């Protein structure tokens, strides 16, 4: 955390996770979707989070004792986190920027699936100050976010909203990395970020339990979690606006987060409430060489890591489909390798007039190389609306996303088709399901 300073553009492939589909029987008309109940978040294993901290400590020890911006320890930290996420099936992007004459790095990791028009982000700064390894500040937040992302992969979690995780560079120099990300995010993409959750110093050795006083829904989500485990909370004030959430808040994105305290002194009332030692800093090793793996409260790290997961699971749930009638085909359709296009049909009936200008085509296509796929929505009169082109650089699996089509020139009633073609060899897949929402 930076308490001394107030406050490669991501490719289109990261922002929209492509799409595909095929033939099947006409689907029945479903009732308008109701918000889905949040699934219970998994327990985040403390041992796993601490293993990441041990790795950050080893990286610092091998690289001059720190993981600071522009130093080899920071790049090694980025590489460690990226390797874990790549192996878990995330789509990762390393974004470069320059600060103080040195190259900095942000790491962005997208979990395939969910409505990219409503993206929930969680992040932490990965850099330390130059005087130490930065294990609480901010290995703790970085490790908790990493392990939560890996839990998403282990569960093969498919929430309604799209999930994006981030690790920021050069926070200690004034939120440089997160500012760069936000400033280079096109305004249309900013509008798709439904919320940003920030985790900076969540394992302080003499901990408090502080919740950011920002977006009321995010704030209440964290308060409810801690109330559920019998831990009182206070509003975070020590570092307000001085961590990476400020970069998002300043452009109108809802934010929230957790904090266990830095250099301020724990009061007697707080010690009675939370335990620990009154008259002593929440983190006596803040921005110091003693911020090592011995500078962590296991209890605080465990509670806060579980709170991270709780917020991700809770806030990413719910319907992201606007009210309307849903016409769906859930029949599997094989997509032949480098073969002819296949189609899957939904029949729309009982409507009057034209289709909407914001017709939603939700696509779930399982495929081992989605860059091979060309996907079209075909209207009843045969007019094709291109949803996705093939791309040799789009090497990830699956197309699970929702496209918006201006279909106002089409009659609403009739047989609508999702047409999918695999235009290259060696990879195969199938249409899992697709739907139209009017």
What does this structure look like?
The two termini are 46 Å apart. With 438 residues, this protein is α+β, with helices and mostly antiparallel strands. The strands form three sheets. An eight-stranded mixed beta sheet has the order 2-3-5-4-6-9-7-8, with helices on both faces. Strands 1, 10, 11, 13, 16 and 18 form a six-stranded antiparallel beta sheet that branches. A four-stranded antiparallel beta sheet has the order 12-17-14-15, with no helix packed on it. Helix content is 26%, strand content 26%. The chain is elongated, with a radius of gyration of 23 Å. The protein has helices at 12-15, 46-62, 72-87, 135-155, 176-183, 187-190, 216-228, 245-249, 268-274, 298-315, and strands spanning 29-30, 91-99, 102-111, 115-125, 161-168, 193-199, 210-211, 234-235, 255-259, 326-329, 333-335, 342-348, 359-367, 373-378, 384-388, 399-405, 414-422, 429-437. Helix 2 (46-62) packs antiparallel against helix 3 (72-87), helix 2 crosses helix 4 and helix 4 (135-155) crosses helix 10 (298-315).
Which features would summarize this protein structure in a list?
single chain, 438 residues, alpha+beta, eight-stranded mixed beta sheet, six-stranded antiparallel beta sheet, 10 helices, elongated
């Amino acid at each position: 955390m930076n308490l001394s300073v107030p406050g490669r553009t991501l490719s289109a492939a990261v922002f929209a996770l492509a799409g595909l589909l095929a033939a099947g029987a006409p689907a029945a008309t479903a009732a308008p979707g109701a918000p889905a109940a949040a699934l219970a978040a998994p327990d985040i294993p403390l041992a796993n989070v601490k293993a990441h901290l041990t790795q950050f400590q080893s990286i610092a020890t091998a690289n001059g004792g720190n993981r600071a911006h522009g130093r080899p320890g920071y790049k090694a930290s980025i590489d460690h986190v990226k390797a874990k996420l790549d192996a878990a099936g995330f789509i990762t992007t390393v974004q470069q920027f320059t600060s103080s004459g040195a190259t900095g790095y942000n790491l962005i990791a997208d979990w395939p699936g969910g409505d990219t028009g409503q993206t929930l982000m969680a992040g932490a700064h990965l850099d330390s100050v130059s005087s130490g390894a930065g294990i609480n500040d901010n290995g703790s937040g970085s490790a908790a976010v990493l392990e939560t992302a890996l839990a998403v992969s282990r569960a093969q979690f498919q929430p309604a909203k799209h999930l994006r995780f981030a690790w920021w560079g050069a926070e200690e120099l004034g939120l440089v990395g997160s500012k760069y990300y936000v400033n280079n995010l096109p305004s249309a993409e900013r509008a798709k970020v439904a919320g940003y959750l920030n985790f900076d110093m969540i394992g302080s050795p003499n901990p408090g339990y502080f919740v950011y006083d920002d977006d009321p829904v995010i704030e209440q989500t964290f308060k409810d979690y801690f109330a559920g485990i019998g831990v009182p909370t206070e509003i975070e004030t020590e570092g307000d606006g001085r961590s990476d959430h400020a970069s998002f808040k300043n452009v109108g994105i809802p934010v929230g987060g957790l904090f266990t305290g830095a250099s301020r002194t724990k009061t007697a009332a707080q010690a009675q409430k939370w335990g620990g030692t009154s008259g002593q800093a929440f983190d006596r090793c803040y921005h110091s060489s003693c911020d090592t793996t011995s500078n962590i409260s296991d209890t605080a790290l465990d509670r806060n890591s579980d709170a991270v997961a709780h917020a991700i699971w809770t806030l990413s749930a719910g319907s992201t489909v606007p009210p309307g009638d849903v016409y769906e085909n859930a029949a599997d359709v094989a997509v032949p390798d480098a073969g002819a296009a296949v189609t899957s049909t939904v029949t729309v009936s009982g409507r009057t007039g034209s289709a909407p200008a914001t017709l939603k085509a939700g696509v779930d296509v399982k495929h081992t190389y989605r860059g091979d796929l060309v996907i079209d929505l075909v209207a009843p009169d045969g007019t094709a609306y291109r949803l996705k082109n093939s791309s040799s650089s789009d090497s990830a699996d699956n197309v699970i996303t929702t496209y918006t089509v201006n279909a106002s020139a089409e009659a609403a009633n009739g047989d609508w088709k999702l047409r999918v073609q695999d235009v290259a060899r060696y990879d195969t897949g199938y249409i899992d399901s697709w739907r139209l929402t009017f």
